[in-house]
Amino acid sequence: MIGPQRQAAQRVSLAATLLVLGGCVPSKVTIETSPKIDEYRVKTVVVMPFEALATPQVTSPNVPEIQAPQGAKRSDISFAAPQATEKLDQPTATVPPQAAGKITQIVYGRLKLWEGVRFLPPDQAAGALKALGPAARGLTPEERARQVAQRLSADAALFGRVLVYQERVGSKLGADPAAVGFEVKLVAADGTVLWAGNYYEKQRPMNEDFIGSVRRGFAFVTAEELAEYGAERVIRSFPFGGRSPR
Fold first, then answer.
1. pLDDT of 94-136, one tens digit each?
2. CB 194, CB 186: distance < 8 Å
3. How far apart are the first and last CA of the chain?
4. Has domain 27-243 been given CATH number 3.40.50.10610?
């Protein structure tokens, strides 16, 4: 029978091991918030349909970084998308067309659990975009978001882009792992970028990401499961309202 002191020592040793192993893994989520965010009251947000990056992207990029918002208009926050030109011998993949709609619904589903903010669905945003006409195609994403928010009398619009969506090849016990990356921005009706989140993960083996492996039952998950995890992590930092206790 193991004594209390030895049990305590084992717990400390395990916690230290987990800390070291977890610290070796790059951050999967990056969040940036505008220093001017306290000047805004956001009670209504329209969720726009996500777009998919059209060009093939490296599926094992460096950790994405977000430039901090400066509280200015439109393109304050710039995302470092995985670059297809990093190395010619690195594997690349094109985002499948259905991935953008799938992640839109996953993110919108998480936001609907939020209290204190009313979220208008993506189909309303799509209708507003259509009403803007062909000229909207020449606008920046931030400008389109601003115009959609104004058209629907929303305080802000949330839009996003899917950068990487590679499905798992193989079974959950042994596979070429899935990879998912997407970015989101919250733009006020006056064009100010208030908040941004970026998620990227290609599932790693246990010896590279022990904590992640434990969390997923030592199994290789699907791209949709990675997207669900990423949306949960990003949306928990949404700066207005709060998660419903239900």
1. 889 899 999 999 999 999 999 999 999 999 999 999 999 888 8
2. yes
3. 42
4. yes
